[in-house]
Amino acid sequence: MEKLRMESLDKVTENVRKIAALFPNCVTERKTFVRGGQYSEKSKTELVIDFDKLKQELSDYIVEGAEERYQFTWPDKKKAILTANSKINKTLRPCREESVNFDTTENLYIEGDNLEVLKLLQETYLGKVKMIYIDPPYNTGSDFVYRDNFTIDKDEYMENSGQSDEDGNRMVQNLESNGRYHTDWLNMMYPRLKLARDLLADDGVIFISIDDKEIHNLKKICDEIFGTNSYIDIFNWAKTETPANLSKKSKKIIEYVLCYQKNKDKEKFKGIQKDSKSANGLLNQTNSIGVLKFEANCVKTSIDDGMILKGMYGTEAYSVELLEDTEVCNGVFIKPVILKAKFKWSQTNLEKELKNGTTIRIPTMKFSPSYEKKEYDAEVPSNLINNKVNVGTNENAGTYLQELFDGKKIFSFPKPTSLIEYLLSFNDNEESYTVMDFFSGSSSTAEAIYNINKKNGYNKLKYILVQLPENLDISLKYAENNNQKEIIMNAIEFLDSMNKPHTICEIGKERIRRAGAKIKSEHPEAQDLDIGFRVLKCDSSNMKDVYYTPADTINMNMFDLVDNVKEDRTAEDLLFQCMLEFDAPLSSSIETMTIGDKTVYNVAGGHLMACFDTDVTEEVITEVAKLEPSYFVMRDSSLANDSVAANFEQIFKTYSPSTERRVL
């Protein structure tokens, strides 16, 4: 059987494969040398790109060297791209005790560095996320920025940044005095957006909240990553009704929401539903002259009963010709009305509107027709987002969260759920889809989705939230002012009252729990609402190093080689790492079965089956094979004896030859 890879997707190899499919002449081979033990070296052949040939394929001249051209660059940009492409040996471990409705929910809350998590999700969720909303650090000079040096020594990190928790969380305060002020922020954002693009569906949309400090740079990197043709707009959100007097030039009311669509289509975004019943005129000066025929008994009027002769009518602005005599009786034209004028509609569109229940009126002898639709299409949203479209402010969100957390103010500048609900409504249809927020902070996105699902009456949307477990004690140490310190202290005291670690994740999870419970208590009709979430935590691989580097065993205790799985890992830990590799959504149903006293997991109704027990017999293998799963996984050392190992392949060939069998 083939062994599982048990590491994130190798983006470089994948990109080479894609280029090879388009330009096979641009792919060549080279030999490299890798360390194969303490004393030996062995060569390795790999496919690489001949960039000179690729440049020639993409232009009629070669762009290189110091030749002037339009570009946007900064120090370490190439390293940021390399960071996005490099693979990692990490996994996501389930945490049942911190979850809500673990076995039935389709929502995910993932704790960990979002760059690592985005890499781990690349295969399973590739092209499957319909919408991404993120509210990243704003680079105000005091925010913490993720530092993505995966090989940095912990002591070196502590020396460089002066801050880290016991898990070595990589965050550094990006002070404005720092000579790399914009550079560090760009290097943090670029690889994350690059990976996020791959997760978006073809028609998927990303919304990014940002202020004026980095909006220009953010748009440039988004233009590069998503393409200028994918740009939708910069929406302007009125974040406050009481702006601070911090500037002598202007009061800051607006923050921005940058929007891109992976492949921009012709579908309209939906804004506010127009419900006005006022009449709209059918005449329009810019249209060419046309003829419309209104059938008998379909046009209402205030004209007195009687015959009306054909001829010229109209207003000061419009000439209208009645082409044939008509007649009115009891407020309705009982004969056809045929008019010649500058109309907005064609005859086909008129008939379509009448079929949809639109009311047509010709109120006076001027013969200027108007219409009232039974239901208006949602208007395309304007790029101003404020209370006129029922979107609240930071103050609204802060007040609400203070009430939710027993009167304690424990968040600075949270986003109102109404903002995220409004953005989600742009793609309002009946289909279910996944929303992702990988800077989830106060978890407003989760509550926004609960509110939308409650309104729709079914679990239309599901979410994936990702958040680094930022240490609040460190945040308190670097707080800028007394107000910020007070808010962080409130959060720490609240977590102490619940005996929880001092991290932003614990606050976020509790917010989701309380918001879900509040909706259920206030809306008895919403008892089927999915208010649960599976907690997963990004951690080192479940496998010992020997799994990845079997040659590097010269100084290892040979007893460690009996099992290549780390001692502290559970069967469920192994299962979720397998789910990542076999394209099984992490929210998939998991059925635990007992076959011949062994525990067998059935994921997504037979998509993946796994058994991690020892001494697995032919009886167990046979019963699993009879269920014909798409994939079956077991541990390398699980089979009871050599006889079972010898018959393993034959059993599957007999009962389920199409099942892919793997070991770890």
Described by strand count, sense and barrel closure, the largest sheet is: 10 strands, mixed
- Give the oligomeric state: single chain
Helix percent band: 25-40%
- Overall body shape: globular
- Work out the radius of gyration: 32 Å
Widest β-sheet, arrangement of strands:
4-26-5-25-24-6-9-11-10-23
Q: Give the strand content.
A: 15-25%
| Number of alpha- plus pi-helical segments | 18
* Mean of all residue-level pLDDT scores: 85
Cα-to-Cα separation, first versus last residue: 10 Å
- What structural category arises from helix and sheet content? alpha/beta
Total number of beta strands: 31
Low-confidence stretches: 35-41, 150-169, 550-562
Describe the structure.
This protein is an alpha/beta fold and 664 residues long. Helices cover 29% and strands 23% of the residues. The chain has a ten-stranded mixed beta sheet with strand order 4-26-5-25-24-6-9-11-10-23, sandwiched between helices. It has a six-stranded mixed beta sheet with strand order 1-31-30-29-28-27. Helix 11 runs parallel beside helix 14 (504-522). It is globular. Mean pLDDT is 85; it is low at 35-41, 150-169 and 550-562.
